[in-house]
TrEMBL record:
Pfam families: NAD_binding_10. Residues 8-151 form the NAD(P)-binding domain. GO terms for molecular function: protein-containing complex binding. InterPro entries: ComplexI_NDUFA9_subunit (IPR051207), NAD(P)-bd_dom (IPR016040), NAD(P)-bd_dom_sf (IPR036291). This is Epimerase. It comes from Streptomyces roseolilacinus. Coiled coil: none annotated.
Length: 266
């Protein structure tokens, strides 16, 4: 059995990916906290400092790099500073550290998980993903870049945050294509088996929805009736947002409404 290292193996995508990989691979997870699955090799480490990284890649055939640090995703709402900067310590510096150690250890495949829209990044978070992709392409380890649209869990968390406002802003003329991270995990697991594929097809949700439809379905399944206000979006921003969907890419099967129904608030 070959060994696959998953960074971010304790996160939303990573947990499903680890579950899918376990039957056919020895799975190792690099994380700051130790998980409790006895079928996983846990390496305590931190991509922001480099602790544990050399140990984590030793003897590994494939690295799936899915760790990330997004303060906005963690808190569940955007602050003005999120439009100006995002910390690069995990996504850029951590990627560089991991790549350097992977090259030294003779890793055969470095699969980097990224975001649809990283080509024309309008947000600092997308800019760090673009920079990390550039490092991966130049890192000297055979690679794949696997991009997905926004995950359902994050859309749910962001809408829960926004619904605390007196009115829920609904950007007009803005399309989204949210995807279940579990569906995407299946695609990533297939790419692990396929080997280095360079820039692979993008992966999105089954439907492209207007932001208004996204909010309406969320309100229905979360039994909310927040007052909404239509927020005009400048044409340039609407055009940029179209780059965040991938109607011609691979598509998951779990719709936004099916996911909301299956994942009630905790
Ligand atoms: N969320 C989305 O909508 C979305 C959409 C498209 C693509 N993606 C991409 O998919 C990947 C996974 O996203 P996700 O939403 O599943 O992430 P997530 O649930 O927020 O999990 C983040 C993961 O990163 C790890 N991590 C954070 N800081 C770390 C550090 N200093 N050292 C080591 N590990 C660290 C965390 O592990 P510990 O806390 O246990 O250390 C955790 O496992 C990312 O590359 C993201 O850019 C996300």
């Amino acid at each position: 059995m070959d060994t696959v290292l998953v960074t971010g193996g304790t996160g939303h995508l990573g947990r499903d990916l680890v579950r899918l990989l376990k039957p056919a691979h020895r799975v190792r997870v690099l994380s700051r906290s130790r998980g409790d699955d006895p079928d996983v090799e846990w390496v305590r480490g931190d991509l922001a400092t480099g602790a544990g990284v050399a140990e984590a890649v030793a003897g590994v055939r494939t690295v799936v790099h899915a760790a990330t640090r997004s303060p906005a995703a963690r808190r569940g709402y955007l602050l003005p500073t999120d439009f100006v900067r995002t910390p690069p310590d995990v996504d850029v510096h951590g990627t560089r550290r991991l790549l350097d150690e992977a090259a030294r250890a003779g890793v055969g495949h470095f699969a980097y998980v990224s975001v649809v829209g990283a080509d024309r990044p309008r947000l600092p978070y997308l800019r760090v993903k673009r920079e990390a992709e550039r490092l991966v392409r130049a890192g000297g380890v055979p690679w794949s870049v696997l991009r997905a649209t926004q995950f359902h869990w994050l859309a749910d968390r962001m809408l829960s945050g926004a619904a605390r406002l007196p009115v829920l802003p609904v950007p007009a003329d803005l399309d989204v294509q949210p995807v279940d991270s579990a569906d995407f995990a299946g695609y990533v697991a297939d790419r692990v088996v396929a080997g280095p594929g360079g820039r692979c097809d993008d992966f999105g949700g089954p439907d492209v929805l207007s932001f208004g439809a996204l909010v309406a379905q969320w309100q229905r399944f979360r039994a909310r009736s927040a007052r909404t206000v239509r927020l005009p979006v400048p044409a340039r921003a609407a055009r940029a947002a179209r780059g965040l969907t991938c109607p011609w890419g691979h598509r998951g099967t779990t719709t936004w409404s099916a996911w909301l129904q299956a994942n009630p608030p905790r």
